[in-house]
Write a structure and sequence with these properties.
Layout lengths: L2 E5 L9 H7 L4 E5 L1 H4 L5 H10 L7 E6 L2 H11 L4 E7 L17 H9 L1 H17 L1 H8 L5 H7 L2 H17 L1 H12 L13 E6 L8 H10 L3 E6 L4 H5 L7
Parallel strand pairs: 1-2, 1-3, 3-4, 4-5, 5-6
Length: about 250
């Protein structure tokens, strides 16, 4: 049976994998806590993480959600002998592949990471405080620009638990590493694409406001014949996770 190594979003936590499990109840999904690895992990770090799960020899199918796509690509690049396939869900592509930033709900955060990293630190502190004392208010703010699919998901208590866990993991427990991931994301990491030799499955909601659908279009072009792209009609960022069907 294939092992699906899951890389969560940023902000996020291993609990993000619960949404993927909804559509794949029999799959062996092993979620990583990326904040324990940091954005610049190496092959040894990944092999140690897999050894804990009893699967250090491969093959593994790596799944990356949102900014977790950056981590998934890095895993495939540093451990090509272990990775049989990549699945990228609502992937946040390198900003250098297109004019994406004006269309991203997280534009203010990414602009701070690019131009005022000190301000990003202050905002992350403030959001961490809100996560502690008013998590529902913060969630409502973060989803203010989302549509019907995401609003319906936000009304689900189970999803609220997943989201609260991700915010606490990112903005309270690992705030500095969260900032490091955001900072790494806005840098140019597009060179990883040329190092990927395995097949790549891309899944993207047509109404995603966090990662514009054009990001998967650009990645599909960059990967060429290695890639297949599935567009999920009317789905958004998190809701796309609940539609993905994993294969070996």
């Amino acid at each position: 049976m294939s092992v699906f190594l899951f890389c969560h979003g940023v902000p996020g936590s291993p609990a993000d994998a619960d949404l993927l499990t909804m559509a794949n109840p029999n799959a062996r999904i092993v979620p990583l806590d990326l904040f324990k690895l940091g954005p610049y992990f190496n092959a040894s770090d990944i092999r140690k993480a897999l050894a804990v799960e009893g699967n250090s020899d491969g093959p593994i199918h790596v799944v990356g959600f949102s900014i977790g796509a950056m981590a998934a690509l890095r895993i495939a690049a540093v451990c090509p002998d272990l990775v049989s396939r990549l699945t990228l869900i609502s992937p946040a592509a390198p900003l250098q592949l297109g004019e994406f930033l004006p269309h991203m709900a997280g534009k203010p955060v990414f602009e701070m990471a690019l131009r005022r990293p000190w301000l990003l630190g202050l905002v992350a502190r403030a959001q961490g405080l809100m996560t502690r004392i008013a998590p529902k208010t913060l969630m409502d703010l973060l989803f203010a620009r989302c549509g019907d699919a995401e609003q319906a998901l936000l009304a689900d208590p189970d999803f609220q638990t997943v989201l609260k866990t991700g915010l606490h993991n990112s903005l309270v427990r690992h705030r500095r590493t969260y900032q490091a991931f955001v900072t790494a994301y806005v840098q140019d990491w597009s060179n990883l694409i040329a190092r990927i030799n395995c097949p790549v499955n891309l899944w993207h909601g047509t109404k995603d406001t966090w990662s514009p659908p054009a990001m998967s279009d650009a990645l599909a072009t960059a990967f060429g014949e290695r890639a297949t792209l599935t567009r999920v009609h009317d789905a958004e960022h998190y809701s796309t996770l609940t539609h993905v069907l994993l294969d070996g």
